[in-house]
Amino acid sequence: MFIGGAIGINALILGITGFMGGALNKSFSKESKMTVIIILSLLTFFCELIAYLVQVLIFSMNIEILTFIRVVLIEVLYNVAIAIIIYPLFQKAGRGMEKIFNEKKIYTEYY
Q1: Is residue 81 part of a domain?
Q2: Residue 54 domain-assigned?
Q3: pTM of the predicted model, to two decimals?
Q4: Alpha carbon of 39 to those of 66, 88, 97: distances in Å?
Q5: CB contact set of 20 (below 8 Å; sequence gap of 6+)
Q6: Do residues 69 and 47 lie in contact, with contact meaning Cβ atoms separated by under 8 Å?
Q7: Rounded Cα gap, residues 68 and 26, in angstroms
Q8: Which of 11, 47, 77, 105 could disulfide-link 17, Cβ–Cβ 3.0 to 4.6 Å?
Q9: Does residue 109 lie within any of the structural domains?
Q10: Would you report the helix, strand and coil content of the chain in percent, each value rounded to 5?
């Protein structure tokens, strides 16, 4: 029921955006919150721009720049606000998991 033969446009756009985010993730420090916020803002803008252009091409919508900019600014601000709240929690959880998995487990009974 949920599996089809076609991939949706939004899924394709989000996949490309995720790929770009992964590529940018390797290039920049994750410790700087400002860098994460800038990357998040750029990726949100890119995703919305591509989705808007696809809608204009497929549905022959009128191009309304001011409405588009207003919607994108609201979405960018919303994503940044959510990231400011949630990112420290993910960062703390990631450090905890990294500590668990990178910890050397020495069994003293063999030495």
Answers
A1: yes
A2: yes
A3: 0.69
A4: 23, 16, 24
A5: 43, 46
A6: no
A7: 31
A8: 47
A9: no
A10: 80, 0, 20
